[in-house]
Amino acid sequence: MSKPEQFKVHDEPFYQPQRNEVALYEAAYAARLPVMVKGPTGCGKSRFIEYMAWKLGKPLITVACNEDMTASDLVGRYLLEANGTRWLDGPLTTAARIGAICYLDEVVEARQDTTVVIHPLTDHRRTLPLDKKGELIHAHPDFQLVISYNPGYQSLMKDLKQSTKQRFTAFEFDYPEAALEATILVSESGIDATIAAQLVSIGATARRLKGHGLDEGISTRLLVYAATLIKGGVSAVDACRMALVRPITDDRDIRDTLDHAIDATFA
Amino acid sequence: MTTLAGNDDAWPERLAAYRAQLDCRFPQIGEVFEASLLDALSVLSPAGVGAYLDTGRFLGGMGRGVEPVLAFLQEWPSIARILGEEALPAINDTLQLIWKSPNGKAISPFLQTLAAVARRLPERAQMQRYLELTLELMERTSSSIHGIHKTFASPGLPDFFAQAPTLLGSLAIGGLRNWVDYGIRNYANHPERQRAYFRLQLADSRAVFQRERQGTLLVDQQRPLDLYLRALWGDSAQLVPYATAVDPAADSPRTSPALPALPYYDATGIRLPDVLDDAHGISGVDRYRASLAHIAGHRRWSTPLFADNFSPMQRMAIESFEDSRIETLILRRYPGLRRIFLALHPRPVEGACRPATESCLRHRLTMLSRALLDPEHGYQDASLREFVARFAQTMAQGEASSEEIATLALAYVARTRRQSDQLANVHFTDTVIGYRDDNRHLWRFHELSDDEEMFEQPPTTATPEVDRLPPRHYPEWDYQSQSYRPDWVSVYESLHPSGEAATIDRLLEKHTALARRLKRLLDLLRPQDRVRIRYQEDGSELDLDIAIRSLIDFKSGATPDPRINLSHRTNGRNLAVLLLLDLSESLADKVSVGDGEQTVLELSQEAVSLLAWSIEQLGDPLAIAGFHSDTRHDVRYFHLKGYSERWGDPVKGRLAAMQAGYSTRMGAAMRHAAHYLAAQPAEKKLMLILTDGRPSDVDVQDERLLIEDARKAVGELDQQRIFSYCISLDRRADEYVSDIFGGRYAVIDRVDRLPERLPELFMALTR
Ligand SMILES: Nc1ncnc2c1ncn2[C@@H]1O[C@H](COP(=O)(O)OP(=O)(O)OP(=O)(O)O)[C@@H](O)[C@H]1O
Ligand SMILES: [Mg+2]
């Protein structure tokens, strides 16, 4: 079957470890423990999972969760066909069948009833009932469930229930420290180390304003964007305004402060 | 004109004729007459000289002694030089009117400062406005008895004239007018305070003066500058304004030996000028930033030295070298600041100082400082160039230190010393670097006085986080005088401390039934804004109609439309809400609930939680804040939930930690809250105020005052298109609440029902 192949991560993704998370993840995977990755947006959670899938040589199925998502979006549904209807597996079902790592990104975004379907997969049962189809799937031995969530965006409606949380081991991520982050920028975009360090220091200025008008600082992702723009020939100042400042704030004082930091950093 | 009149043979005769025309016998006149007349002849036309002497005669004969005529004779020529002699009639009219009023005593002060005023108002139209303002002030502050005779002189008028040049030094004529107007309105009937006001001795007279000043006011830039300091320097020192007479970068001080006060910092904060104009192409804000960068640099990299070991000149040199070291380090991090520093740093002209007659050390050091900042300084002096190189060498090793740089500075002083450095006549031109601080932090003394002990504290790399941001100032409405007291109230904002989120969950558990009922109500609110989007290939539900149609198409051999699903989109209600909680002492009161007792505080926590939860379901942006006050100097504003925060544990934790204390200065809190709500992009803005008593504070005796101020605040909110609504738990609120909120309030007199009433009220309001 070519399906597992189709979901394999073929080329090594660049991942810059922050600590010993790679080894820890391998241990969790060896025991097939479900994993939760927490951390602010754009700090490398998805990249980490992609990298681990590659390293372990397992297929990876990623589902970006959203508030309109229903259980059948995960599990599967019947489709209309010439001779009636046909069942189509959802991504979670596919992963369980082929033994993939199933990564539910931003799982809190999905409705609560959606998250419940993962429960039987995450305990010793490792099963997935397809109610509509009347089938009970036993997960492939390679199957593992990973969810991500950003604690900054909790709500009563969307917060994970304790009974869900307590089915996972967890990694807590944060933005990498300065030197590492600069390395990441260099590898991701190919800009030179000096500019990378300058971008990282601008990131730091914004992160100091967290709680003083900013909910989150500038993410590594945005820093990569800025670096990419600069590499593409955009002036550093324009790239920073466009990729680092405008997306994150409408607050004039903050915008002016960050713009000033940019002007001050790039002479 | 006849500038050589004095050498004329016929001069004594003509002088006598002029003297006769003046017709004034005060002996003192003789002493100044000839000089003044010569001055007048040099600027006035013959007719103008005639008018000059006529006005002099009038003033001399007016019965007010010699002073007015003396002042006029001496001042008029210089005034005419600025405004033209055509300005005289208008001034004459003013003099006449003052004379006819009981304010004759004010004529001398008026004339004595008129030339200085003219220098600030060199246009005749501006002068005209000044004269009108003068008369208006006189009219409105001269008191009359039974409205018939103006018997009492204006108490403040002479003081006003005396202050006018100072005031105009900072205010435009429009600003002066507003300042005068405020004084009249508030102190027309208090002679003593009126005088104090016009002498700039009252706090509010200074405050209004500040408000009317041109340029960038520190008070207006507090937040951006706090952010700047925090973001770029990780420093959270307090910023404290000091009053400036002269702007340190205004052009004059560069050439004037009257040195402006420089910024500085001490244990209590960073002191900056209260106002800065744009200068040398640098905006006021960037000038503040330049000072802050320099000071933050010192705070990070400077360590104090023992002053006792050095002569004053050595100290001056050390300070200058240290300043350059700090800026070199700053520019390594933020090279873009060089443009600003260069624009603000004076550029002393090589050779401008004459060592034969002047002390040149300041000049030399400033040149060197310029050269260390400006690679294109172009100076030729050999020792300057040598020390630029040695400085670079010292800094090449790393950050160097205050000690190391001091050694270099001492070498420089030794190398360039001149006898004339000791002269009292210091060359000041182009040596004031106004954005730098005065370096008082750099010195410690073996004999420690109390003050200096503060500097004993470890240098500032580890500045303690001051979590209390500097205050925002808000005006307060004084209904008595029908005017605002500007910058009257200080509001300190902070994040509310956190407690146990679980406490709130427990409180909410009691209300599961209520929550269920609310949910039904909420669902009723929602449908209108859930919009069905049909014809979706992917959707959350099958759209049966379309699906069947497709199926039929398909069975009959036609290509079916695959878009057989539908999905929903929430059409935002476009409403932003701010819930403002009164956290004053009375919140601790107990009320009976069912069989037991609960505090109003707990009930509020439940109610607010339910409300927040409800609003969250509706998806309306909601912020929650609390306030209490302990005099106008200390209104505290706590953030409990920010707009972008979801209803979750951090917010619950803060709600759980809510405490009752102090008083209710409602107007200030509303103004501050409005500042956040107004920034929300939503079309409709609702401010809910949950309170349990009347506005009051310990420093206000007059019960009406804060009620009237809150009412005024509601009006201001209306103008910002913020709809305010009060939910009061005070059973006697009817006595005042409608005065404040008009019809937009609800009194909940069974406080135990608050948890259900609050969300219901909200839903009713936004249905
Ligand atoms: N440790 C890292 N190694 C390599 N790249 C990284 C690392 N951390 C962040 N990045 C870069 O940042 C970008 C964003 O990371 P990623 O998409 O993994 O964020 P995320 O944490 O999943 O964010 P979100 O919560 O918004 O989904 C990546 O595309 C990558 O360029
Ligand atoms: Mg991601």
TrEMBL record, chain A:
Matching entries from Pfam families are given as: AAA_5, CbbQ_C
For this protein, the record's InterPro entries field holds: ATPase_dyneun-rel_AAA, CbbQ/NirQ/NorQ/GpvN, CbbQ_C, P-loop_NTPase
Instruction: Give start and end of each CbbQ/NirQ/NorQ C-terminal domain.
Output: 181-264
Establish whether keyword Protein transport is in the entry: no
Residues forming the ATPase dynein-related AAA domain are: 34-168
Give any GO molecular function from the UniProt entry. Answer: ATP hydrolysis activity
* Annotated keywords: ATP-binding, Nucleotide-binding
Q: Which family does it belong to?
A: Belongs to the CbbQ/NirQ/NorQ/GpvN family.
Protein's name according to its UniProt entry: CbbQ/NirQ/NorQ/GpvN family protein
